[in-house]
Structure formats: structure tokens, C-alpha cells
Queue: 2 jobs
Job 1
Amino acid sequence: MRSVRFAAITLIAILAISITAQAKTIVVSPNSMNGWKIAIQKGTANTSPICNFVDGPGVAPSGSSSLHMQTFYSDSDPLSKVYIGTNDFMGVSLKEITSFKIWTFVSSRLYNRGQPPMVELITDSGTTTQQRRFVFYPWGRNGDQNVQFNTWQEWDLMSPTGYWELIYTSSPNYFGNWDWLINRYGNETSPMRIVVPPVGDYPTGNLTGTGLSVKIGAGKAIDSRYGAWWWESCGIDAYVDKLVIGVKGVETVFDFERLGPPPPVCGITNRGIYNSAAYQGSQRYRFMVWGVVQEDGFDNNQFFIDDGSGMPVKIYSPGHAAIPNCFFTVVGSLDPTQTPPTLNCDPFDMHMW
């Protein structure tokens, strides 16, 4: 009887651990980027790169959609590039990463060294703040390993046979697998960590200013080590989905979807909208503000609302039904590039009280 009870307790414990360790899925979609940023650079190409959410192709690894990434012919600096990235893992030690996978689908490439969407990590140097750039090449350094077209391929970025490269270095010790990467700089007490790079083209930063990125884009056109470096990213038509990253055994799955749930609504004061934290949350939340509609600046497309703080928020809502001097609540998406802070609002997302 005691052994049965012990077995039952053990089973419950195992189930509890299993439930706790379940992966969390975050949907990244056009209406809810959840902290991800897209950036494209036309460069010297005649046609601007494409980065959009689409159905399929075929049976997507997660959900029903994926992110389409496409570059066209570009053989001189600045090169044509497309990036999507996040800073959600800023400060995470590379040695804390316990799983790291991604799926890609390639329709075509112009040159045999062309790569599927690659993964880029920007880190510190462990014992110093000097930034390092590591890139994972799914098809190996020369684009000739396990090459398949028009099918989804899963890549384990921590595989013993995976190929990572340290970019922008003169050291001969510039490539290896995941174990090589995590031990390249730093030590046990000061391991390398993911950091936020500046925004900019190679080598000063990356297009999204994110420490974890998925990209199509070589560093520059010609390099003494690589020769025609532009070959690896020229004329790539590809898709990416289901990026999985586990930190200390807790996995997060990023599912790229054409249609996703709307971002959650967060109530915030007018004064709060002016805070930098609201700007940082603008890609994850819609905001609800409230107050009296002001007469100044009122027209059929926009108006200002003041909750008594004297820090009015601009509401852009063509065709709205707001009434000056009446109290309204308004829900909208924050445009952090505007001054004063501006909420873009559907006319149906405002109510008079």
C-alpha cells in the first residue's frame, strides 16, 4: 500500500513538473508584434525587400501562417537586407539557454552560397562590454549542407553539427558549434550575455537594434575573408516560423501568424502616456485613456483629451463622434513617433460617459 501511495505521489510530482515546464506560445502578428521589430533596407537593389505575414506555405510548423522574407539582386554596399528581432532576452546568459530551434522554408536562391533566414545574436564579451556578433548558418558556411527547397526544415541551433560564426573579427578562431560559441568569450563567473546593439547597418549595429534577430543579409558586399559575401543573401525567397528558445528549461515558442489576437488593453493616465515605459509597451498593448474632449485642436479627424493632468493626449480617429467638453474613454494604439503622444483609434473604440 505504501509503495502504491509513493508511486502516486511520484506521478503527481512528475505531472506537476511537466505542467510547469510547458512551453509558452507567443503569437507575433501584424496587429500584435509582442515586442518584435521588423526593418528592411533596400540598399542597392532595384526592388525593396519583402517582409510580411502570409498563410502557409504548406502546413506551417506552428499555427497556419509564417513570416515571408525576400531579398532581390544586390551586389554592392549598402546591401539589401531584411530583419525581424526582439530584445526580450536582453541580459540572458548564453549558458542559461537550454533549447534553441527554428523552422525555415526556402523557395529559391540566386547563388549556391545563399542561406535560409539566419539567426543573429549580439552579445557582450563576458568579462568586458565589447559587443560580439554571432550568426547561425542553417545550410553551413558554404550553403551546401542539407539543402532542401519547398519544404519546412527544423534547425537545432545547439546541435553539435550546427555552424555558428563570429562576424567582424580577424581571429582565426571564428567558427564552431554552440558549445564553441558559449565558451568563446567570458568565463563561468562572467559568461556572455545577450545585449542591445545600436541601430545601424554592419558593422555598427543591426537594422532592428535587437540582440536576437532573424535575418536575410550579409555583412557587406565584398570582404577579404568571404570574397563575394553578398552571394549568401542575394535573391532569397524564404519563410520562417516557430522560433523556440528555452531559458533554464522554460521554453517560449514564437508563432508567426498572419492573423493573431488583438493586443491586450492597458488603462493609463494621460501623464503615463508621456512616460518612456508607454513607448516601450506600444508594440505589446493598446492603451485606454479617459478625460474631457478639448475644444482646441478639435476637427473631424482628431481631438485632444485631458484627464485633468494638463498633459492632453492627441487622438487620431477620422470620422469620430467625440463631442467637445464631454467625458470620453478612448482605446487605441500608441504611435511613439508623434509629438505630442498620439493614439490611433477606431471610432467604435470610444465611449461617452
Job 2
Amino acid sequence: MSTEENKAIARKHFIDVLEQGHVELIPSYYAPDGSVPSMDTPAAWRDRVLYHHKIGPGYQITILDMIAEGDKVAVLWQANFTYSVVPEPPPEKLPYPFGKAVTWKIMSLVRIVDGKLVSNVSANEWGSMMINAGVYTLAKPEPA
């Protein structure tokens, strides 16, 4: 597949599945077994997407940039999320700042083979977002 075709597959995956929550499309985007040990299986990805849409209705993403070479596509995207529904059973510690709109950026590197995602590795600004939302605080150095 061409790099442009791979970018289109990656874009559709992020928008159709992650943002819009169309988990029924996961088999059309993911290799059946997850293919890579560090990547969620399609079933685990489905559960993760449904969970995020349940606890944060209105979850939105914006694709900021995409670069492709060969079978790899780098996707810089931004998530906008308001955790507004506590799941049952409630977690011991709330995983997100409850009731606050938060935004963070994620860099994902996906590998696409025969039109299916076989690898998806991401790094994000999670810690910075949690600090900005007031959930985490930075330790202040003690005076000398």
C-alpha cells in the first residue's frame, strides 16, 4: 500500500474508532491477533474505547500532523476529554480530573501491513495534563 493509503487508514482508525466510538469497525482496521505483544488485541482495544466513551461522553480528538514512510505512519493528535461519569464499580482512585475539561497531545507510531494496523505505540503528555488540571503537584525543593 502507498504511504497515502496508510495515512488514510490511520486517520480513519483514529476518527472512526477512537473519537466516534465505532468499535464495530475495529476488525476492519486491526490485524486479528493484535500481532505485537505490546499492542492491545482488537477485543482489548474495543473495551478501552467503550470505557473512555462511557466515562467521558463527547470525547474528541484532533489530528494535528501525520507523516508516513513505508509501512509506518506517525500521527500527532490531541485528545479533549471531560471525565463526567464514574464507572461501576468506582475505581479506588479517580483516573482523571473529574468534571474538568482536559487536553493533551499524543504521538502515535502505527505500522500498517496489508491494510491493517499491526503495531500502535504511543507517547503522551499525560503527566503534564494531570499537573495542569491540578490532580498532581510537583514537589517543591526544600530550602537549603
